[in-house]
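Hi Y.,

Following your request, here is the sequence exactly as I used it, all 354 residues.
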Amino acid sequence: MAGNTFGTLFKLTTFGESHGRALGGVLDGCPAGIALDLKAIQDELNRRKPGQSAIVTQRKEPDTVEIYSGVFEGKTTGTPIGFAIHNTNQKSKDYSHIKDSYRPSHADYVYDKKYGFRDYRGGGRSSARETASRVVAGAIAKQFLSDIRIHAFVSQVGTLKLDTPYQELDFDAIESNAVRCPDTATAAKMEEYIKFIKKQGDTIGGVISCVVQNVPIGLGEPVFDKLHAELGKAMLSINAVKGFEYGSGFAGVEMKGSEHNDQYNSDGSTRSNLSGGIQGGISNGMDIYFNIAFKPVATVLQAYDTIDKDGNKVTTQGKGRHDPCVVPRAVPIVEAMAALVLADHTLLARTNKV
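Below is the corresponding structure, written out as tokens. Let me know if you'd prefer a different format.
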């Protein structure tokens, strides 16, 4: 299986399955001498871990990270950073009913057809649990990018939208509620709606918005490695993501060029920021902001029709512990992937200087 490595210079390779002994990764290319706050890394994992509230999966995992290499006396050594997160609360029997059949909209069918074999326990490698390793690496990247600020938050659940411009939001309020929406009134409505959907044995999708501030000018490479293209790839690699837009996004198609152009100030900043902080694929020093759409979780705790490995039509029902809405726990994953992209392009930018 290819495709387990992300990045060019600041490079992460992940390993492990949802119900295997452990998940983990090797982070290569992290510069030496960075003082690592191990508690901050664990705190990021705690934001992603299951069982943290009534509106997420109730799988109980401590998700404690163990770092095995690349760190000495609290600082990075410049060598590969190896780490692992051990699984402790697998319930593989919850998946025995799909050993020979395929869940709709999951990777079950395509994995079987591509590889001729699959780990059906929790989805194996296709499980969103793989993203725990990304969060660890992203937390390290954040500490490398100490001056850059990355804030992701839930801006939509189903039809419930937060329409307040991000400039008017208090990012400190993101962690004040289980939904991770910085507007408490909207968050309360979202939480009640997720609970309602959960009682029906169903799931619902949502949108996460992300704002990156204090980005220096010059990150991103022309043509194929544009910064927004790399961010798009990073976000679309996250489980359940169905869409990515940055800056004005799709709304920009309704504007005229004279309305959409970001006019310059004398210092090189722009009066508006419909470009989303990126022009020509390169950061321009303004805020980078983007939205990521997540589909409803595919596993519903209702009876459904499907096929087995022989093509016979069968009826089965979702079992186990699953998120009724993925976006609250996906917030730190979005931040982690953004941090990995920015760390990689920070190192790439250094190679362009004489």
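The first strand starts at residue 5 and ends at 6.

Thanks again,
Q.
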